[in-house]
Amino acid sequence: MDTKNEPRSMARAAVREPVVLTGDGERFSGYGVMGLPFASGHYLAFRHFPASAIGPGYRAVWHRDPQGQWTVYADVPPEQSCARYLGPALTSTRTAQIGVGWTGERSLAIEVDDVLTWELELGRTLSTRMMSAVGGILPDGAVDQSWLLRAMGVMAGPMLRVGRVALLGTMPAGQRYGAIPRRVWAVRKASADLGGVDLGPVGKLSEQASLGDFVLPQRGIFFAEGMAVFQP
Count of CB atoms within 10 A of residue 162's CB? Predict the structure, then answer.
């Protein structure tokens, strides 16, 4: 079985040979969970960017509670992580050890200190195959093409059935962003325990979550070979 295009293999390749994107602005590449909603009102997202223009590569977990309060956990200081761009929308930021363990080509567990345990199983659908086919042929410079990002966002929302998608916009801290998840998989199963509390079954939120212009999917989506750029 050829596993080079499976999530685990692609994630390990991103760590082994980080792709440093060239161009203006602050650029990142890597993999993660674009977002995952829980019927209880909780929301989780994960980023592992081995290549970072503002410091060492890092891992970060985003958590939104049912009251809409956001916390970002990261293994680097806030000014070198996602919190740099999300800051005004966050209730808190915490520096923590974040571990990722792959139990199969399409299954992984994410742990944040002794606070969070999050397990996921990934799979392909016709729509994720189609999106990956398009994203997989894009050059690095595609992340700078506003027209392309707009078009991909309009297409991705209904195709993946994730609600609205904005691959171009403004972050809560004011930076303009562009992002492309080149390869995507659906989250088939997931469970999470936060501080001893089971977050319950996966399910859409009553209102789609967003941070600035960046809206988060209403279904679980994992991405690899992701590219992002932020302009002051």
Answer: 24
